[in-house]
Amino acid sequence: MNRLVGLLRAGRNRKKVVGLTALFLLALGAVAIAAPSGLLTPGSGSSGGLSTVGPVNPNNGFPDWYRDSNGIDLQPCDDPQDKYCGGAVAAPDNTAPITFPDNFPDEFFYMSADADSLTSAGGNKVLASFALEGAFANPGIHAGDQIVFSRIRYRINAGLAKNTDYKVTQPYGTDTVTSDDTGALFVTQDVGVSPGDFAQATKGRVGPFLTWAKTADPNDLPPANYVGDGVTPHTVTGSPVNTNFVRIQGTGIGGGPTDTNPNPCNTTGANAYTGPVNDCIQTNNFVLVGKRPTIAGVDVTRATYEKTASGTQIAVTANSKAGQDIVVRDGDNGGGPGRLFRTTPLRADGTGRYMAYVSVPGALPKTVDVVNRADTPATVKHVDLTDALTATASYGVTNGSGGGDKLHVTASSSDSSVAQSSLTLPGYGDKALDATGQADISTPAPPDTVTVKSPKGGSVTVPVTMSGQTLDPLPLIASAGVDQTVSAGVKVTLDGTGSAGDIDSLSWSGPAGITVSGATTTSPTFTAPATAGTLTFTLTVKSGTDTKTDTVDVKVNPVTPPTAVIGAVPAAVLQNLPITLDGSASVGAKFQWSQDPTDATKVSLGTDTTSSKLTFLYPKTTTPVHIILRVRSAADTGGACDTPTATCDVAKVTLTPLLDNLGTIRAKNDGKGRWVVDGSSSTSESNNVRVYAGPTIDPTKLIGSALVDPTLAWKTDVRNSTVAVPTCRCVSVESDRGGKQLAVPMQ
């Protein structure tokens, strides 16, 4: 996703990104919702700044820490009572200890870096924020909804040029942001919003972590175990591309030609800006939130047991930071009195991997605790003990439909007391293995993996191996398509798309005298000849040394001369109303309607003049309108068609206007603003009469209008009229149906 619609609201708070998990999954860009909008186009910068996801905390379900490529670890800054984190998070009760889920923030930061005091044209504050943030995929604090995502966000509420690109240079690369049509922008890029998949955040561009930069003052340091204090603006270090600042370049970003840029870009030193001073703003200061971890945590990757006639052992593997003090103990009894085995330290490899293999002298506990005693308080992972399964899955292939081919599964448990027949295949309706730990499943196509489960909690997923006969390749097929029947002179398309196999080449051939265009394509064309008959075309396809052919017949029918016929029309046509001419009785493939160019009154025939029917508005006119219909056969190549030919016929119709006779008109004015004008008409069909003062039709002197009633009479009676009696003491009248009388004397 290269161009991203920026939505979501400004500030630190993230209101739930509900229903967007699938959209953001592993995407390097993401879209959320708010206003104003705009576009964000990531430029330079890449993932890789975050290298390791720490163990998941057993109390809140979030990673205990993230590590960047510089070896800096940061933990959740999630406690409102921590003055270096409290400004960034809020719990339901900020005065009480953090507990999950009852008093836990709905969002928090591993790191948050906000550009400080950056102002754009018109004094508008600029939000430029870079964060690794923890939150929840759905409203509320719920186990299983935990997400951690990388965020880059920009917001400027006003003052930008509309729909204009601006280049942003920031610690993690560059972006192009585009303002919306109001001159504002609000854009966000989130990466990693699938619950529980905490490694997704490492695919974003935020990382490595920023920290306060050293200054000449040796006491100018962040609080111990923090990268910043969450309040004080400060220069930073950590940018993988040595751009420890935010710079925005674009037309008038710092103000107009006569304005003073409140935060101009550096013009000397590294990354010096050269350009108009008000086309660039920059800040080198950030407000940083980030806390170095006080615990390392522990992830348990295995807790299984082995039980044989000679004894019982527990196998545990775990991950954490190097140099930790990690032990395994009886989880049922906490290592206290009644413990079923002695607490045993895990052996380390020096890189963060740990293991223990412990003998159990008697009864086996149901659970174990894996404890990192180096943490304060100690991290305890309470996990169920399960048996360990080993399994194989193989599939024997025979050439053919595969109806008799079988998937063969074998499995066994590390617990010798577990009956082999109690092991099941959940992917096949919990089908049980037989007493020897085997199962055969008939299937023409196996899965890529098979899972076996044990009643003691163990589970194993193994790949399916294949052996046997190989399947036949796709056969070479030549398909020339279905037979066709066409008219002489038309363009014909042949269809070889049904051909199949690994086709190296194909070619068409036809009767002598027929030119096939595109003869080496699947859809060649030719023009049907004037002579009727059946034409046979051959399609040849080749694959290596294999050749296949197929034929298709095209029957060419003789040309049927076209006939142009226009249906009956009225003897006189009502003016200023639509009329439809019907040429559907014609015979032919192509229609074209037009008006006789010698007509005195020009008519607009509309956009559809190639159908069998024509509808248009008959104009107000005193002279006839002549409409021409030309009908052509499919073989006709166009050109003139003023007289019938073998491929074209022409018909013409005369439309005589019905002239509205307005009859005797009487007009009176009482000298007090009242006009009374009446008369008669020769048609009442949708006929409206308008009366004007004076000897001409002058719209500025309209007295009134009246609809002709079924008796063919009309009358307009206008009171308090502002239209004065003209010096001619006369009126002029017109109707929708073409009637007109000028300078009618008043009574």
Total E-strand runs: 51
Largest sheet: 8 strands, antiparallel
- Distance N to C terminus: 81 Å
Share in β-strands: 35-45%
- Provide mean pLDDT, rounded: 91
What is the gist of this entry?
The chain has 747 residues and is mostly beta strands. The strands form 13 sheets. Strands 6, 7, 8, 9, 12, 13, 14 and 17 form an eight-stranded antiparallel β-sheet that branches. A six-stranded antiparallel β-sheet has the order 1-2-11-10-15-16, with no helix packed on it. Strands 22-23-19-18-26 form a five-stranded mixed β-sheet, with no helix packed on it.
Keywords for this structure?
747 residues, mainly beta, eight-stranded antiparallel β-sheet, six-stranded antiparallel β-sheet, 51 strands, extended, disordered N terminus
Write a structural description:
The chain is an all-beta fold and 747 residues long. 1% of the residues lie in helices and 39% in strands. The chain has 1 helix and 51 strands. Strands 6, 7, 8, 9, 12, 13, 14 and 17 form an 8-stranded antiparallel beta sheet that branches. Strands 1-2-11-10-15-16 form a 6-stranded antiparallel beta sheet, with no helix packed on it. A 5-stranded mixed beta sheet has the order 22-23-19-18-26, with no helix packed on it. The radius of gyration is 44 Å and the shape is extended. The protein starts with a strand and ends with a strand. The model is unreliable at 1-35 (pLDDT under 50).
